[in-house]
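Q: Structure tokens for this one, please.
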Amino acid sequence: MRSIWKGEVSFGLVNVPVKVYSATEDHDLHARQVDKKDGVRIRYKRVRDDNGEEVEFSDIAKAYESEEGEMVILTKDELATLPVEQTHEITVTEFVPADQVDPVAFDNAYFLEPASRSNRAYVLMREALESTDRLAICTFTLRTRTRLCALRVYKDILMLQTLLWPDEIRPAILEGLDKEAKVRPQEVKMAASLIETMAADFEPEKYEDDYQNQLKELIEAKAAGGEAFTVEDQEKASDDDGDDEVADLLAALRASVKDRGGEAEDESDDDEDSGSKKKPAAKSAKKTAAKKEPAKKAAAKKAPAKKAAAKKAPAKKAAAKKSTAKKKPAKKSA
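A: Here is the predicted structure, written as tokens:
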């Protein structure tokens, strides 16, 4: 890799000489623009508006509008005279808890390599960041822009992660959330159960860029004079892309949990949390109970007769004992 910037990280009175490398690259297939009739390449030219003459890249300057509306032309050499362009320093302003920087602000990533004979200061800063679980908030100028960035540890390497400025993050004004739908407690529980069945450690290596893989397949197939994907494949893909809202959200969640091998909650558990939607069933139960009440009362009236019969039972037992007692002597005489 070739370094794109060289300077030093400065915090307090400590300076850490570093080289900066781009940490990411795209894997997309790059295409040329051509005329679809015969494949002749299309080129863009830098031309003047007034006469259409082509201008060399080295002769192109930048023009900015002043506060009075006057157009000011600045050359590359003039832009290079800015004081920030002369300062090759990544200035640490503060150390903040890592969870206070929202990932939405992360932009480009850069590796930092020790640029001095001894990497002691580099290792010291890396271990200090790891032990405190903090990010170093820094500013530095790269490619005509002063950038806000977070210095953090990535696989035993100091990484510089540029951050978007606050005014570069759009406010989340979304019409679809103006009237927020209400979800039932049991739906939240079932969704949480589904999440648990799908919980895993993140392994980015097991994911693939389907679009790029299919694009390569299409290129190779067409180069060989064939077709990679048929009309049937296209129709099947379009059928799978339906965006109809699930009619019964809870049933879909429960089926998803069972499909993942989890244990879905019983219907009885839903009844406890269902609230107003289950109340009609409770009312119907009360009605059926009310209809049965006369039968219960009739049975209650018959209950005294049973008690009276129970009271007569001892008398029968006593009579039985007397009869057996009288018969015993007769047996002996025989």
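A few notes: Confidence is low (pLDDT under 50) at residues 269-334. Residues 279-333 form the longest helix (55 residues).
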